[in-house]
User: Which sequence fits this backbone?
């Protein structure tokens, strides 16, 4: 299983277990638990929306609306699959709404372009050289992701940056599993083509 | 197992059963093309780990809490309470409305009946007056006396009907008043 599916929190507790526990406490009226839950959600939701919308202001608004809807919907969230899948289902809806509004206004937004944002994001690399290399690789990957069609991009983002299972992604995007897998295959082929130049030729084909 | 890129993706994401995963492993041991595909896809997933995690500049968590916490977690008890109270209020209003409706029964049929009876009464009064006028100054025949008596009796009945209907239309005077008619 992909290691991203086994993310753990700072106490060694799997994040998904932690989320479920915080959901339970928040539903009982624990304000601190609700805040911790939203804080856990914040960055991954914002990262997804920023890469989809490519506009920081819009992404922040959509992330805030997502968190509001999460709070208001906590009572309704029960056996609808994992909390993360439910969270991204909401985030995706807010992202689509923001994108529609953005296209209705006829402009891609006034905020900085994603490539510029990515280049300026905090990235505590171990050494200045590695940090610089990683930044450059990240910038190239961000640019390659940005070029993907939206349907392929959302599948790639949910899989590559959030480690969601394809069945969860199918539920979030309300698409058949085989469609999701086809989009991922196309996205993988395009991304590999774009980033192929990042890795030295002799490493290509070796075990990662 | 034949080459199936979708199954390879599900293998990487850990969504296959143990038996299916073993089939994939047996297949890629003999299929360099699928083995390469798996390496490429896994390589991409690992490579995506270099992507930084952007953070919003605004405190969206606090903003969301300010807007939506009133009623989020604590909503369970008060919401059920409020729903129950609202249902109880509706029930009280419905019962009061039903009682009020029963005590004030003017209905379209009442008005129609009232109009009909009034027309009948006016007709009888005209007939009665004609008979009385005809018999003035003469000795009334038995038939004339019988006609007058019949008309008066009929008028009395209609008067009571009118009073009954009027009483029904006015809750304060509900119930027929006895009247001897004209």
Assistant:
């Amino acid at each position: 299983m992909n290691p991203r599916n086994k993310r753990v929190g700072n106490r060694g507790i799997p994040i998904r277990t932690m989320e479920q526990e915080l959901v339970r406490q928040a539903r009982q009226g624990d304000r601190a638990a609700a805040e911790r839950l939203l804080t856990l959600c914040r960055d991954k939701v914002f990262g997804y929306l920023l890469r989809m919308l490519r506009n920081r202001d819009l992404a922040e608004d959509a992330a805030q609306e997502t968190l509001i809807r999460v709070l208001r919907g906590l009572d309704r969230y029960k056996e609808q699959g994992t909390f993360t899948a439910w969270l991204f289902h909401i985030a995706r809806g807010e992202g689509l709404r923001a994108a529609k509004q953005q296209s209705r206004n006829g402009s891609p937004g006034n905020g900085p372009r994603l490539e510029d944002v990515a280049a300026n994001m905090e990235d505590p690399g171990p050494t200045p050289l590695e940090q610089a290399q990683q930044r450059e690789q990240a910038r190239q990957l961000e640019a390659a992701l940005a070029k993907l069609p939206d349907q392929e991009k959302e599948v790639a983002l949910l899989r590559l940056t959030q480690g969601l299972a394809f069945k969860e992604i199918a539920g979030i995007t309300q698409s058949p599993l085989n469609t999701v897998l086809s989009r991922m295959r196309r996205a993988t082929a395009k991304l590999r083509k774009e980033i192929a130049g990042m890795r030295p030729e002799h490493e290509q084909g070796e075990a990662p | 197992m034949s080459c199936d890129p979708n199954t390879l993706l599900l293998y990487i994401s850990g969504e296959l059963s143990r038996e299916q995963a073993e089939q994939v492993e047996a297949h890629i041991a003999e299929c360099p093309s699928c083995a390469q595909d798996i390496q490429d896809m896994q390589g991409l997933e690992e490579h995506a780990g270099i992507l930084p995690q952007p953070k919003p500049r605004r405190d969206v968590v606090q903003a969301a809490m300010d807007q939506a916490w009133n009623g989020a977690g604590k909503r369970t008890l008060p919401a059920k309470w409020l729903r129950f109270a609202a249902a109880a209020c509706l029930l009280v209003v419905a019962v009061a409305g039903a009682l009020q409706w029963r005590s004030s029964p003017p209905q379209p049929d009442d008005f129609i009946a009232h109009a009909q009876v009034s027309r009948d009464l006016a007709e009888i009064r005209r007939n009665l007056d004609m008979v009385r006028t005809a018999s003035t100054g003469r000795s009334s025949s038995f038939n004339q006396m019988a006609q007058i008596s019949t008309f008066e009796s009929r008028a009395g009945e209609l008067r009571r009907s009118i009073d009954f209907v009027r009483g029904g239309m006015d809750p304060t005077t509900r119930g027929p008043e006895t009247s001897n008619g004209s």
